[in-house]
Amino acid sequence: MTRPDLNLLVTLDVLLTEGSVAAAARRLRLSPSAMSRALARLREATGDPLLVRAGRGLVASPRALELREQLGSLVQAAEAALRPQKPLRLDQLEKTFTLRSREGFVEGFGPALLARIAREAPGVRLHFLPKPDKDSAPLRDGSVDLETGVVGDRMGPEVRAQALFRDRFVGVVRAGHALAEGGEVALARYLACQHIEVARRAGPSGRQGPVDEALAATGQARDIATTVAGFSAALALAQATELVASVPERHAAGLHGGMHRFPLPFAVPPLTVSLLWHPRLEADPAQRWLRGCVREVVAEVLGGDPLGFPG
């Protein structure tokens, strides 16, 4: 079945409003002959004469009068759907956004982000979720609005990414540990200790983290005493044992007394933590506002240049 030309709805609405082919033509900036052809097509589509000559004018048929009751709202709804979105009113926005991130993000930036949102959009709520992997499926299926993390090979090629800040790995031990004394930590001293590995997956994954990859490139390996799922657990163990934790420096920035951090005695590629979102949300005003909030809060909390290294 041939689909009707929906442009004819606008034409019919104007014809019924004006009650004249000539007047409708002027309003739609068409020639009278083009409007007459449009009326002929409308009659064919509806199977009704619609407008019938009466003296020098036209009168609507019963079918046309019936349609006139529906057309106004139909045309207005169609025009509204095709207009640009209204300006975002943050004071009227009521929405819950879901943000998925690795550990440390909520602790480091959550308070400032929540305070910023409460000031600008009191009706907005944030739902923070942990990020156990780099799979971009939650962004793709819409269950997550935003993510933060390091761009990986498991991320979908369509996902948008914008750098938030850079970080680098440092070593962390308890106060009084042998590596906390005696000045610069040489590679031999570092390797002589037992270490905590941070791995997202249980069991052998066949993939090393950046610290072990950097050591392997020099032909060396750490003595791994235990494996944990996150940096917070690694720091807690390091504080209570003789084990060494190697964690991102910004994650260790909030350490209290009783811990000592030091530069790693070998080169490890820096980390770039990015803001990630799906392109279908690119132009949404509320989503753009939220992304701007996250970027600006991160810059304010870190101060200076967030894409530089911690001081």
Would you mind describing this structure in some detail?
With 311 residues, the chain is α/β, with parallel strands linked by helices. Helices cover 39% and strands 22% of the residues. The protein has 11 helices and 12 strands. The chain has helices spanning 7-18, 21-28, 32-46, 62-82, 105-120, 137-141, 187-191, 210-217, 231-240, 249-252, 285-302, and strands at 51-54, 57-60, 95-101, 124-130, 146-150, 160-167, 169-174, 194-198, 223-228, 244-248, 259-263, 271-277. The strands form 3 sheets. A 5-stranded mixed β-sheet has the order 4-3-5-12-6, covered by helices on one side. Strands 9-8-10-7-11 form a 5-stranded mixed β-sheet. A hairpin with a 2-residue loop joins strand 1 and strand 2. It is rod-shaped and about 110 Å long. The mean pLDDT is 86.
